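Render this sequence as a predicted structure.
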Amino acid sequence: MTQTLLHRFPQAIASCSGIALTTFLVALPAPSYAFVLNLVSDRAALGGNDQVNWATLGPVTPPLPFKILPNSIAATSQAGLNLTVTIPPATSPGITPLLLFQTTATGTPTNFASGDFVLFTGLLPGQFPSPGNPGPITISFDTPVAGAGAQIAVDDTTQFIASIAAFDSSHQLLGTFSVPGTSSLALDNSAIFLGVLSDTPNISQVVFSSSISDRALGINTLSINSTAVPEPGSVLALSLAGVGLLAARKRKTV
């Protein structure tokens, strides 16, 4: 069986001890409004204007090919957006906390792009397949955004179902989407991109998870769209409203 993600350094760990596949219209209570939430399966389609490269949580210093992180960490995007990343504690003894590593051919090959920094939920070293913390990975934004997404892969698992859920500032579910994914050691950037995009900045939290209940998962750079993306119908409605307002003002001046 092909090993994936962190199989290259279990001894080191031990020694440390595109867009819109589905659309939902959701009406929220008072004040009532509708929004459109789309699944985004391509990074460019997210229209990101901000990002978090997890390299900022480093460095990853040799001889260890990873950095151990707490299971709850604070990070800041390139544009200054503050966010928090959390994973639940592992339920099995010996599983590491959250890890940061860089995927390379000589270090830790994955099917992310070579050189990507990856947040990884942790595993029990010395076994194959390695039991791991399945997450989920929850990312909470201090200021709501219109969209967010990252590529995702699962350790020691060639095929899986990946899911992303989006929540608003009241922790109300805005929508959830699931797509099939694959993992390998190919370093070919084939890890699936999983994102959500709303037509208004109402996303305060995204949650990444997989269908594999006992394997670790990892995500690479988080892309963020911090601005609203109006639907054509919304733009038309605003235009018509403006025409009506202008006509009403003209009638008053006659």
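Summary. Confidence is low (pLDDT under 50) at residues 7-32, 231-254. The two ends are 81 Å apart (CA to CA).
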